[in-house]
Write a structure and sequence with these properties.
With 466 residues, this protein is of the alpha+beta class. The chain has 20 helices and 12 strands. The protein has a single domain, classed as Orthogonal Bundle (Cytochrome p450). Strand 1 and strand 2 (47-52) form a beta hairpin. Helix 14 packs across helix 20 (419-436). Bound molecules: protoporphyrin IX containing FE (HEM).
Length: 466
């Protein structure tokens, strides 16, 4: 065996063990650097993989013209146990139907009603003020916030994670134990799904009984609201949809199929809750470590948003430095650290072949092509010098959309439906917290970041507010 093959094998073994420990983002980055390449192929477990940071190839595999050569791979099978044929776990005509049906809900007109976030933001502020020395794990708080706001938006009733955290009484029409069970059950269900994702095509070997118990709890929770909506006549539905702001009541005017309603609701919770919670967590973690960035953002916010009433979609979109801070977080700590597609037949990627990776590359059928955002987002070629540091100012000289390599929300016809909503949610919370608190300090010297389907902080995100 040649030296370079030996070296390659060592990297891959290292990659596998790091993947299991949630450090695949760092291990992959090291492989890319040591091999000095933008694309390499290997097997992780029994499956052939290609890892590439060539934007042309990554956009190609996600583009509308390529749906016969690339599919979503094992993700569909893993998630369909929970999500049935919802948008996140379907393909072809079923996916297209979902996408057309759901898209209007994410329109500018709908998402701009941001003041619905205020009560949940008030709970976040209260949690901070009540914490000893105003020090607490903000990862937990932000994940509670995004669960509360997402369920409020989708179902018209929040699952009250923040109230539960604060020890306050919860309200709502559903039985309290069902409500309180939902978020923990969702988290456990996500853990099972992630373990199965790592197993690739062997996911079917891992189907513990408890996984089905957790899935049933999630189904029962959503079904309660679906049945409530289905009992309504069209006038009541229209009233309850509150001009389209409550997704379920809006959707129930388009379909009366309870399974479709459940599958789509759960799909959106899966796609939108933890991702947005991750963006908020990492933004605040970085603000806690970069006092100059924090002070500048706080001062800008206090001028541009003197009170709650001044916060609106338009004023948020007009706040350039806030956008830079969000973009820099999406670059530096991408909430979805890997994206992938699997080839359905032998096919060709436009880049990645040849000695310099700039020639077309033949890829065999059944190969998983992985795009590691962590590495791509650290390439000096696209993001300028010093990409290993958090520096929102770099966005002053980058295209507003980050250019061709920047794909935190995916690309092509299956890109993120909730992108604007996620940015709005994070902006609103950030503005409200920086209006309220004068300082933030991180208690972590260097946090351990864990990557799986979503980027999280392994030991939570302990921050002290002042
Ligand atoms: C910072 C937060 C978020 C990030 C980084 C993010 C990222 C992504 C990415 C990368 C994809 C594409 C996956 C692929 O190519 O296979 C995606 C899809 C999707 N996202 Fe998001 N997302 C975020 C928030 C949200 C929110 C708030 C919602 C809705 C409430 C949402 C709903 C969806 C849906 C429905 C899809 C599937 C689209 C389809 O398959 O047609 N996302 N997201």
């Amino acid at each position: 065996m040649s030296n370079s093959t030996e070296k390659h094998k060592k990297f891959i073994l290292n990659l596998k063990s790091n993947h299991e420990r949630g450090l695949a983002h760092e291990a992959l980055d090291e492989v890319f650097r040591k091999l000095d390449t933008s694309t390499f192929g290997t097997s992780v477990g029994p499956e052939p993989n290609v890892f590439t940071v060539e934007p042309e190839s990554v956009r190609h595999m996600q583009s509308a013209s390529q749906t016969s050569d690339f599919n979503m791979g094992v993700r569909l099978k893993v998630f369909s146990t929970l999500l049935g044929d919802g948008i996140f776990s379907s393909e072809g005509s079923s996916w297209k139907h979902s996408r057309i049906m759901l898209r209007p809900f994410f329109s500018r007109e709908n998402i701009k009603q941001i003041h619905a976030m205020e009560p949940f933001t008030q709970s976040v502020i209260k949690a901070i003020k009540q914490a000893p020395q105003m020090t607490l794990d903000m990862q937990e708080i932000f994940q509670n916030f995004t669960m509360d706001y997402t369920t409020h938006l989708l179902l018209g009733e929040s699952c009250d994670c923040l109230k539960t955290y604060l020890g306050e009484p919860t309200s709502g029409s559903i039985a309290n134990d069902m409500k309180l069970d939902f978020a923990p059950s969702f988290d456990k269900g996500t853990e099972y799904a992630l373990r199965r994702l790592v197993m690739g095509s062997f996911h079917w070997l891992y189907q513990p009984r408890q996984m089905f118990v957790e899935i049933k709890k999630q189904h029962d929770f959503v079904d309660y609201y679906v049945q409530k909506a289905l009992k309504m006549n069209s006038q009541d539905l229209e009233k309850s949809s509150d001009d389209g702001t409550f997704f379920l009541y809006d959707l129930a005017q388009k379909t009366r199929d309870p399974k479709v309603l459940r599958d789509e609701i759960l799909s959106i919770i899966v796609a939108g809750r933890s991702t947005t919670g991750s963006l908020m967590t990492f933004l605040f973690y970085e603000l806690g470590r970069h006092p100059k960035v924090f002070t500048r953002l706080r001062d800008i916010i206090r001028v541009q948003f003197p009170d709650v009433a001044s916060i609106a979609l338009e004023s948020i979109q007009g706040c350039e430095y806030l956008r830079w801070c969000l973009n820099e977080t999406l670059r530096y700590d991408p909430p979805v650290p890997f994206n992938s597609r699997t080839t359905t037949q032998d096919t060709v990627l436009p880049k990645g072949g040849g000695d310099d990776n700039q020639s077309p590359m033949l890829v065999k059928r059944g190969t998983k092509i992985v795009y590691p955002l962590w590495t791509a987002n650290r390439m000096e070629k696209y993001f300028g010098k010093d990409t290993n540091s958090f520096n929102p100012d770099r966005w002053g000289s980058l295209p507003a959309n980050g250019g061709t390599v920047f794909m935190p929300f995916g690309a092509g016809p299956r890109n993120c439906l909730g992108q604007q909503l996620a940015l709005l949610e994070t902006s609103y919370v950030t503005i409200r917290l920086l209006q309220t608190f004068d300082s933030i300090k991180s208690s972590h010297k260097e946090a351990r970041k864990k990557s799986s389907a979503i980027m999280v902080m392994m030991d939570g995100c302990k921050l002290t507010f002042g």
